[in-house]
Write a structure and sequence with these properties.
Layout (H helix, E strand, L loop, with lengths): L1 H17 L45 E11 L4 E11 L9 E4 L25 H8 L9 E7 L6 E5 L2 E5 L9 E11 L11 E5 L4 E7 L4 E2 L1 E3 L3 E3 L14 E10 L3 E4 L2 E2 L2 H4 L2 H10 L7 E4 L1 H9 L5 E11 L3 E5 L3 E9 L2 E9 L6 H20 L7 E6 L4 E4 L2 E4 L11 H16 L16 H21 L1 H4 L16 H4 L19 H21 L1 H15 L6 H10 L6 H9 L7 E11 L4 H9 L12 E4 L14 H4 L1 H10 L2 H6 L5 E8 L8 E7 L4 E6 L10 E8 L3 E6 L14 E2 L7 H10 L1
Parallel strand pairs: 1-13, 20-21, 21-23
Antiparallel strand pairs: 1-2, 2-7, 3-6, 3-10, 4-7, 5-6, 8-9, 9-18, 11-12, 13-17, 14-18, 15-17, 16-19, 19-20, 22-23, 24-25, 24-26, 26-29, 27-28, 27-30, 30-31
Helix pairs in contact: 6-7, 6-8, 7-8, 8-11, 11-12, 12-13
Length: 765
């Protein structure tokens, strides 16, 4: 049997060689442009801090910053006041001449350059809040007011503020392995976050004259110092998010006495701030795994809206090993909690929302939080913190350790559309999911937005699909959860768009034209295809969990991720990272053409020409089997449908001489031979997924590895044999590869079925 197919292989090589006899002009030399070359030029050289395997090296280090804060929120004036003491640990091998602190609220200062950084002219339309913020009234008087910076002895430290960064000029360098403490006192006007989509602030409810606060970026925070680039002191312009250092927090927050508040960390004085009834409900919630328990009911929240207390209450929290801090507070909040078992530990899934969020939030918010913690823990690393909080906030979607704000508001009469429902569930999954990336696996969002947004959106897609399976009643009458991003077809409009407005994934968020598709959608789709089509779930899942475990509570780079995925799977993926992450190439693979061949023991005319050019005769060659295509003058219609042994005496004799009777009986002699040419107009090499359909009704699906393109990036030819006549060939029949043009995916060629197909053809052309 093996000799039979070896002979055919030799035959195909000979025929292929014979067809390449045209003389070509000598071309000049070139550098290695192969899509499968290694990423040595793009990657940094491995060192003792970060190994070639993608794991932290033996000398890996990271700094630590611990915070003690006293915060007061003035609800009448919407001002926040704070005093903090930072203890900074220099674990690096370097002596530090100064310290850099982030002042992200300065992006909203009157003299901020952030609003001046974009051009673009008059848009077709804008949201009312955005329009008002740009053109109506005076700019908001935001930004930090720094009262002082002092060392541990109370002596003033000089400082220099450069937009959203503050350099603290320490009198002596902070030695390697040393630590120092210093204090900052500050305040700022809290913005209305419904204007210009501020990441934190308040929403004002005119009907009951109350505010709901979601507060973050509210304190001066240490910048990251690392082995990758020293101080990460890139300015905060608005799109690139945060690079932050892990540490321990002790935070006391003083708010009006009738406010309900939750925050990053574990509440230390629960009995002081909870009523007796709230304590009883909390104890029940700790044992409720199937549904949330209301700690504050809607009736209680509505009663609190009507009377504003003149007294204050201080909520005290501690948080261990977190990279940031946030809190939410309002007298309008309904509060519910549910226990979740993750990795043998009890975690509290929590929601805070005003009556304006019901009935949607009471039904789905905490359910989505609990589901997210389980799903993400299964696919990455177990959730380590004691709770995860979802806070309702208009038009918001923002994340911090253990707490996030999310949109999704019903109509005033309590009705809501599927779009609002799915949008709310999805944003909760996404923002709670950010607890894993980047709050645990702590990537540099300021530089690489996709490392948190893209990885999170990928896990969000899986969690959404699992949510639909676990709660089918929530998605009825749909058959599956309608995820907005993640499926290959969803990214096609972006990848087939105008190249002048597309940037590679490996771009700084501030330099990206379409941040949503670029940092969220495309990397999520790339990882989904990698898992489902390129690597397979078993290899991918092991590698992804390896990355998550290696880099939890550390600072990974893109290269650490790329290298770990290869290191833990034994799959060479440099070609994939290059195509999907370092370029704006797209996927487009099609069927160029098909030819039918017949088998003979007589040389075809092309073979005769090949032999003549080399002064060869049949006597100079070993016995061979020859193929000729149906368009050649050698083709004999009378031979159609006959088995190869009937057409080729040489082949028949070979089988008789080399195969036993039993082996000959087992050979399924093909009646048809085809050469199929597949082309690749797109730049990204991908697995060639082909479905063959035959006249007898059978189908065969074969996935050829992406390496099939390694020697010819434009076109490959394959030869197949079959007993039944080939009726159709379809590339990527299940739309697994994000192919931007499916009009060339089939033979015989199918007509364009939709306006979108025609649109793609137009864009491509």
């Amino acid at each position: 049997m093996k000799y039979y197919f070896a002979s055919l292989l030799f035959l195909l090589v000979a025929v292929g060689f014979a067809q390449e006899t045209q003389t070509k002009e000598r071309e000049s030399g070139h550098t290695n442009q192969n899509k499968f070359k290694q990423l040595y030029e793009e990657f940094a050289t491995p060192n003792s801090y970060r190994s070639a395997s993608g794991a932290p090296g033996p000398n890996y280090y990271q700094q630590q910053a611990d915070y003690k804060m006293d915060i007061t929120l003035d609800d009448k004036k919407a001002i926040i006041y704070g005093e903090e003491t930072i203890t900074y640990y220099n674990n690096s091998p370097d002596d530090l001449e100064y310290l850099w602190v982030q002042l992200d609220q300065n992006v909203r200062a009157k003299d901020s350059k952030s609003p001046l950084r974009n051009g673009g002219g008059v848009p077709l339309a804008e949201q009312p809040g955005t329009f008002a913020g740009k053109y109506l009234g005076e700019p908001f008087d935001g930004g930090f007011n720094i009262d002082y910076v002092k060392d541990a002895s109370g002596k003033a430290l000089s400082y220099t503020i450069n937009q959203t960064m503050m350099r603290i000029n320490i009198p002596q360098p902070l030695k390697s392995k040393a630590q120092m403490s210093f204090s900052i006192k500050w305040n700022y006007n809290i913005p209305d976050h419904t204007v210009n989509r501020a990441r934190s602030g308040f929403e004002y409810f005119a009907k009951d004259d109350n505010r709901a606060y979601v507060i973050a970026q509210f304190f001066p925070r240490m910048a990251v110092y690392s082995d990758v680039e020293g101080w990460q002191n890139h300015q905060f312009w608005g799109s690139g998010e945060f690079a932050l250092t892990f540490g321990d927090y002790e935070v006391n927050i003083t708010v009006p006495a009738d406010h309900i508040l939750d925050a990053t960390g574990t509440l230390q004085n629960r009995k002081e701030v909870f009523s007796k009834e709230m304590m009883n409900r909390y104890e029940r919630a700790k044992k409720s795994y199937d549904k949330p328990v209301l700690i504050v009911t809607q009736a209680e929240a509505e009663a609190a809206e009507k009377i504003k207390s003149e007294k204050t209450k201080t909520w005290k929290f501690k948080a261990k090993n977190v990279r940031d801090y946030g809190f939410a507070t309002s007298r309008k909040f309904i509060w519910d909690m549910q226990a979740v078992k993750v990795g043998g530990k009890n975690i509290m899934a929590v929601s805070l929302y005003p009556k304006e969020g019901n009935p949607l939030w009471g039904e789905y918010s905490t359910k989505a939080v609990a589901h997210t913690l389980k799903s993400y823990s299964e696919h990455s690393t177990n959730y380590p913190y004691p709770k995860a909080i979802s806070v309702h906030a208009k038009n918001q979607g923002m994340e911090y350790p253990m707490i996030c704000w999310n949109y999704g508001r019903p109509n005033e009469d309590g009705t809501y559309s599927d779009r609002v429902k799915y949008g709310m569930i999805s944003v909760i999954i996404h923002e709670v999911g950010h607890n894993f990336f980047p709050m645990i696996v702590n990537s540099d969002e300021r530089q690489w937005g996709w490392m948190d947004e893209g990885l999170d959106t990928f896990l969000q897609y899986m969690a959404e699909q699992e949510f639909g399976e676990k709660f089918p009643e929530a998605i009825a009458p749909n058959k599956a959860y309608p995820s907005r991003r993640g499926a290959p077809a969803k990214i096609v409009p972006y990848m087939s768009g105008d190249q002048s407005t597309i940037a590679p994934i490996m771009s700084n968020p501030e330099n990206v034209y379409q941040l949503g598709p670029n940092a969220y959608g495309k990397p999520a789709t790339a990882l989904n295809i990698l898992r489902e089509t390129v690597m397979g779930r078993e290899l991918f899942d092991h590698a992804f969990k390896t990355y998550s475990e290696r880099w939890k509570f550390k600072h990974p780079t893109p290269e650490d991720f790329f290298r770990t995925m290869e290191d833990a799977s034994a799959v060479d993926l440099d070609w994939y990272w290059r195509g999907w992450f370092y370029t704006t190439d797209y996927v487009d693979i099609g069927v160029k053409g098909i030819k039918k061949y017949y088998v003979s023991d007589k040389p075809s005319k092309k073979m005769q020409e090949y032999m003549a050019a080399r002064n060869l005769t049949e006597a100079d060659l070993p016995p061979l089997v020859y193929l000729a295509d149906e368009d050649s003058e050698d083709f004999d219609a009378n031979l159609k449908g006959k088995a190869p042994t009937e057409n080729s005496k040489t082949l028949k004799e070979f089988m008789m001489d080399n195969l036993t009777a039993e082996e000959r009986a087992a050979v399924k002699e093909p009646k048809y031979f085809y050469e199929i040419a597949f082309n690749k107009p797109g730049g990204i090499p991908m697995p060639l997924i082909v479905e063959y359909t035959y006249a007898d009704g059978t189908t065969k699906n074969i996935t050829y590895p992406p390496e099939i393109w390694r020697k010819n990036d434009q076109e490959v030819k394959l030869v197949i044999s079959s007993i039944s006549e080939l009726k159709s060939v379809v590339v990527d029949p299940k739309l697994e590869t994000a192919d931007i043009d499916t009009s060339n995916n089939a033979w015989p060629k199918k007509e364009e079925k939709s306006d979108f197909d025609k649109f793609k053809r137009k864009v491509k052309g």
